[in-house]
């Protein structure tokens, strides 16, 4: 009898891809290495490489320990919840007039993430590495949510305090400038009505076509409350004044 043939070992034995390795794949792809070459190098199918590249933003956001092999769907859901709650918190701080900067937002995000992990029953996310609230995450968070008026990272926060205050105060300062009596007198009621009608058209377009409708509506509502309402008040005041003037003229005519 011929000796039993040894089973041929799989020459394409799969390598378990850690997060660190996924980052290397992403970096190589960004340097111009083709998907096919990456698949050959790491003994993976091109579809697997494409899936890693598709999730590159989320992979870059995670500061995981070496050896961690995956980002769980549960962890990604928690990150989504953190960003949604964080945006609500930022808007509340804006309305309260509190001064916040990038460092404060990142620290709040880390606290929120830790709290949500604790509240997730049977969670294994602690083994996947901590969420660091890094600068890279913050920049992507700004782009996703449309928040742009925040100071730079820690080194910029101390030297650019005014920019941090503008994150909260830009709309408010515009409104205060508009309250100057000279400015109000120079504006005709017709011009104000024309501006308000134009703003309604712009706001409607933004809320209809912006990819993140919730963010768009919060932004337009904030602008309405802090800026546009001032001009509505001017028109109301003038309307009351016109009614009072008409009444006084009528009284004078009746007396005469």
TrEMBL record:
GO MF terms, alphabetically ordered: DNA binding
Gene3D superfamilies (UniProt xref): Homeodomain-like
Location of the HTH CENPB-type domain: 70-151
Source domain of life: Eukaryota
Keywords tagged on the record: DNA-binding, Nucleus
GO cellular component, one term: nucleus
Compartment(s) where it occurs, according to its Swiss-Prot or TrEMBL record: Nucleus
Designated name of the protein: HTH CENPB-type domain-containing protein
């Amino acid at each position: 009898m011929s000796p039993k043939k040894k089973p041929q070992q799989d020459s394409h034995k799969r390598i378990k891809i850690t997060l660190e390795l996924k980052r290397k794949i992403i970096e190589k792809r960004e340097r111009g290495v083709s998907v096919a070459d990456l698949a050959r190098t790491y003994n993976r199918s091109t579809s697997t490489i494409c899936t890693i590249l598709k999730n590159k933003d989320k992979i870059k956001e995670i500061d995981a320990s070496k050896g961690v092999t995956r980002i769980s769907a549960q962890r990604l859901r928690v990150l989504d919840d953190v960003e949604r709650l964080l945006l609500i918190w930022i808007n509340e701080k804006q309305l309260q007039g509190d001064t916040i900067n990038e460092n404060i937002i990142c620290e709040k995000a880390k606290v929120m993430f830790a709290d949500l992990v604790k509240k997730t029953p049977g969670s294994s996310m602690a083994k996947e590495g901590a969420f660091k609230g890094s600068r890279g995450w913050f920049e992507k968070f700004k782009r996703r949510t449309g928040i742009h008026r925040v100071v730079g990272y820690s080194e910029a926060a101390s030297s650019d305090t005014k920019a941090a205050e503008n994150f909260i105060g830009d709309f408010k300062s515009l409104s205060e400038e508009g309250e100057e009596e000279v400015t109000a007198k120079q504006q005709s009621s017709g011009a104000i009505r024309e501006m308000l009608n134009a703003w309604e058209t712009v706001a409607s377009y933004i809320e209809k076509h912006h990819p993140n409708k919730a963010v768009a509506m919060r932004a337009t509502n904030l602008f309405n409350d802090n800026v546009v309402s001032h001009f509505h008040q001017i028109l109301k005041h003038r309307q009351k004044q016109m009614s009072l003037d008409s009444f006084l003229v009528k009284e004078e005519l009746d007396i005469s």
